[in-house]
């Protein structure tokens, strides 16, 4: 469902993503973790067709991104880390715009919008986007993606700005969708979320994937049977001594 081979991106001689390989099957929740600046968002932008790679091959839903970019974009959903919505539109106008773009302006989609708005307490569709908080815009973006029932969903820090109830509903919805065959590609700095939700976790650092597997496989990689994902992450990204020295000096 999501495949990348030797995926690389350079910016002015700086290699932000360095030859990574990803192969995600149908229905898997794939966690993509890393420190700030490790290359997570750049990878998502390449996988979703908003950034051209310097080198490498991308296949989504079995289609080559270079040859079938528009077909792929019709069938995937993307929730970015910062909800980018036209501020001069009202909430319902934005949703109508998305429905028209994706050609899903029909009664089934409108019914699904009503259900999603009720679930996430989106009762402000008459507001201008410019008057919405970050959390309100994040919920609106989620509705605009989930209403289309995409086959692959990319989410970059999706729970940032959400209240606890909405975050819980989103996590449970994603688990439900995965059992129905939807593939989920998720980045988050909240490692407890990744540990509980993700079937497979990849850790990227300095543009390279340094570890990938299930929680049990990651534990075997570090020679531990009981470490949390947070502990594994700190160890694998070689931050343990750095953190200790910082705390000792404070």
From TrEMBL:
Keyword Transport (UniProt): yes
Keywords: ATP-binding, Nucleotide-binding, Transport
Chain ranges of the ABC transporter domain: 2-231
Record keyword Nucleotide-binding present: yes
Transmembrane segments: none
Superkingdom of the organism of origin: Bacteria
An example molecular function term from Gene Ontology annotations: ATP binding
Gene3D superfamilies: P-loop containing nucleotide triphosphate hydrolases (3.40.50.300)
Listed name of the protein: ABC transporter ATP-binding protein
InterPro entries in alphabetical order: AAA+_ATPase, ABC_transporter-like_ATP-bd, ABC_transporter-like_CS, ABC_transporter_ATP-binding, P-loop_NTPase
